[in-house]
Write a structure and sequence with these properties.
22% strand; alpha+beta; 9-stranded mixed beta sheet
């Protein structure tokens, strides 16, 4: 019964339902034959649609680690292989690109607090090419956000990092994390800010004015023109950070459409892959694509109004976030990158959410 209720809640989330009451109402409208099929697939006897108390109890009692592990396996397997035999016209597509880029980032669920009154904070690892990036793993940061780096290492210890490149924000530019990534066969491309004082000073002192620009890109959108330049140097000797092969400087200049300056930002960083494994174009792409995981968090906030949710009980906030990760990932794997429009599409037919999740015959 637990598996069947979780499957029904996942389908309701694909249809855009945001909380227990909305999920309960949607599940109550599931056709009897579809409901019976879900129970059969879960190995449970046929039963009526679960009520709100049952849905609440199961979603708040579910082991968050186990659920995230199961979701991660489903999404990453679908990412690297063709999911089933359904055609793209039915909402399912194949992801054929190997998942080489891992993006690490944390998100505070602002409306939820733990028993000590701390806001709940989740850390996720996203995998895959930009148009099909999915959450491969997620964990809750126990206590407070400063423990995020410890949680990150605990999460990465259980992942096969062979052949991957991991990016994250400057909080995770930590020696222990870099050591772990390399021990597990992965590489890193990480930014460096003033919170890593000695490392930042060492990079900032390099002769960047004499270094040629190795990569340039320009984007126009949202009434602005953004130009990015990248400079790269071999890692200097004595750098106070392990396994660094290259160091880089990205400068971003933003103007309005008439050329009036809006902002100018510089970012230093370190990379473990050498120039044969990561060219300047690759380094620029890794840095640019890191924002994809922030897009995931933005979708959860705007579409599902996650930060406005008052869901607090036990594992409830994490489980709801996990189901949203599953829904967003399933849409992307189906080739539907506009998640808001995809949710509207799924909501217009009771069978579509189940088809997206592979829960139909």
């Amino acid at each position: 019964t637990v598996a069947a209720v979780l499957a029904l809640a996942a389908a309701a989330t694909v249809a855009g339902m945001k909380g227990y009451r909305a999920i309960t109402g949607w599940v109550a409208d599931v056709p009897a034959e579809v409901l019976a099929d879900v129970y059969m697939r879960a190995g449970a006897a046929p039963a009526p649609a679960p009520g709100r108390t049952t849905i609440w109890r199961i979603l708040t009692d579910t082991d968050g680690d186990a659920l995230d592990a199961a979701i991660g396996v489903w999404l990453t397997t679908a990412l690297s292989t063709c999911v089933g035999t359904r055609s793209e016209a039915e909402g399912q597509a194949c992801a054929t690109e190997p998942p080489a880029h891992l993006r690490l980032d944390g998100k505070t669920v602002r409306g939820a607090k733990d028993d000590q009154g701390n806001q709940r904070h989740l850390l996720a690892v996203m995998m895959g090419p930009p148009d099909k990036a999915v959450v491969a793993a997620q964990a809750e940061v126990e206590g407070a956000k400063p423990r995020e780096t410890i949680t990150a290492r605990d999460l990465l210890k259980h992942m096969d990092l062979t052949g991957t490149v991991l990016t994250a924000d400057a909080l995770h530019t930590v020696k222990a994390t870099a050591e772990l990534i390399r021990e597990r066969g992965g590489h890193f491309v990480l930014p460096v800010k003033e919170n890593r004082g000695k490392l930042f000073d060492a990079l900032n002192a390099l002769p960047w004015r004499d270094v040629e620009i190795a990569h340039t890109s320009t984007d126009v959108g949202h009434g602005r023109i953004t130009t990015r330049t990248l400079q790269v140097l071999p890692a200097p000797t004595g750098l106070p950070f392990p396994h660094v092969s290259q160091v880089w400087l990205i400068e971003r200049y933003v103007t309005d459409l008439r050329g009036k300056p809006v902002s100018a930002i510089a970012q230093l960083g370190v990379a473990s892959p050498d120039e044969t494994l990561a060219t300047p174009t690759d380094l620029a792409r890794y840095n640019r694509d890191q924002w994809r995981i922030e897009v995931l968090h933005w979708i959860r906030d705007t579409l599902y109004r996650e930060d406005h949710s008052r869901t607090r009980t036990r594992s409830g906030p994490r489980v709801m976030a996990s189901l949203r990760n599953l829904a967003i990932g399933a849409f992307r794997l189906a080739g539907r990158t506009d998640i808001t429009e995809a949710t509207r599409w799924a909501c217009r037919s009771m069978n579509r959410p189940f088809a997206i999740l592979g829960l139909t015959s």
